[in-house]
Amino acid sequence: MKRLLFFLSMVLIYTSILAQSDEWWPLEVGNKWQYQYYFSNYGSPSYHIQNVTVTNVETINGRLYYSFTGINGNKYSYDDVEKVIYQYRNGMESVLVNLSLPAGTVIIDTSYSEYSFHDEIIAHNFSFLGQTYYSKGISNSSSDDSGYLSRNQYFAKGIGQISGWSNSYVYDSELGSGSTNFKLISNLIKQDNGEFVHNCSSAAGHTKFRDFYTSGYSNSSIDMSMNLYHNLRKNVNNGYGYNYIKELHVEYYFKKYNDRSQIYTKELEFMPFEPSISTTFEFDSHWLDDGYELKFRLYAVDQSLIPDTVYYPDEGYMTYDGALLGNIEEIAPVEYSLNQNYPNPFNPSTTIKFALPVEAKVTVILYNALGQRVSEIVSNNFTAGVQQVNFNASELASGMYIYQISAQGVDGSNFVDTKKMILMK
Fold this sequence. Notes:
Elements: H1 2-10, E1 13-15, E2 32-41, E3 44-60, E4 63-69, E5 75-79, E6 84-89, E7 92-98, E8 106-112, E9 115-128, E10 131-144, E11 147-156, E12 160-170, E13 177-190, E14 196-200, E15 208-217, E16 221-229, E17 245-256, E18 259-260, E19 264-267, E20 276-282, H2 286-289, E21 293-302, E22 309-312, E23 318-320, E24 337-338, E25 349-356, E26 360-368, E27 373-382, E28 385-392, E29 399-409, E30 414-423
Parallel strand pairs: 1-14
Antiparallel strand pairs: 2-3, 2-13, 3-4, 5-6, 6-7, 8-9, 9-10, 10-11, 11-12, 12-13, 13-14, 15-16, 16-20, 17-18, 17-19, 17-21, 21-22, 21-23, 24-25, 25-28, 26-27, 26-29, 29-30
């Protein structure tokens, strides 16, 4: 128990769907937000992922102003007493939005000559993390004899900027109209105790490899095709989408009888806009010329604020001898490891995988967020390899739990690791 409590005191990042603050825009260096952006670029739709990170803080006019990457060069400050968001740009300070005002409050409504301006406090309910959040913000609109521009920005307590959109129209131009909107996918928010809470959209999930096949191979290359599927992908007809995959790698080694090379890794090129991927894996031909077989597997890294890595195949390596792609070969892990349970969040069942380099007695214990023992998931002997246990939490309440593995190998080795899981009913 002391070991677990020490681990809990040292953890800086964990995933939660519950913890929130009352600040309309929680600003701390290191906080991050990830948005899905949609552009209708005057007739050509496109989507992309935009990460926003707080990078610096400084005092200006007695207020703490924060700088960001991923948005305009303005600095922003939030006063939790006044419920006011300030912006600082071009050496001038101004109010972006006063969130203490009720929805429908008109800030400015004026027109002269061909110009008109209208600013108003707005409110809306948005869904995030499977919950509905009341949000408030500001609506700005302006027009002149060349066209018009309107923009809405919404903020939710404990979340920050949750959504927004803008529309524009240029008169007497082939450009016509354009629009932009964005919605929050996930964020990483620092809490008062110094820990970061990772809030993930309910649409988030693991990458899935589908329809893998080889279309050509030689003694120095393999042409591969596959579909990389992710819940947060966006496919667009007559425009640009994304598949939410940041990197694609191949992990490989060469083997002849009991002789085995070191394990290599190589990043593969692919088009990030399409879920259907064709790529070529090139390697040194002398290994196959000397009678070795190639063992390889793929892994993809997604664009999450805390990136998730998924392998294909899930376990073992595919075999290639220069002429034929053979069966998947299982090899014993070289070290102990504990995987994140999947799915996570889950209801009510989830799977826990772990790797054993040698036969070992394995015990997995579940604790609640207070460090109190809840149940023993498994206590048994396992052979070397990648093993898994299924856990059913139908009798437990929703919330965050901690699972800890202890393994004692037959060679005298020991291994302890701990991870968090979220039960969401």
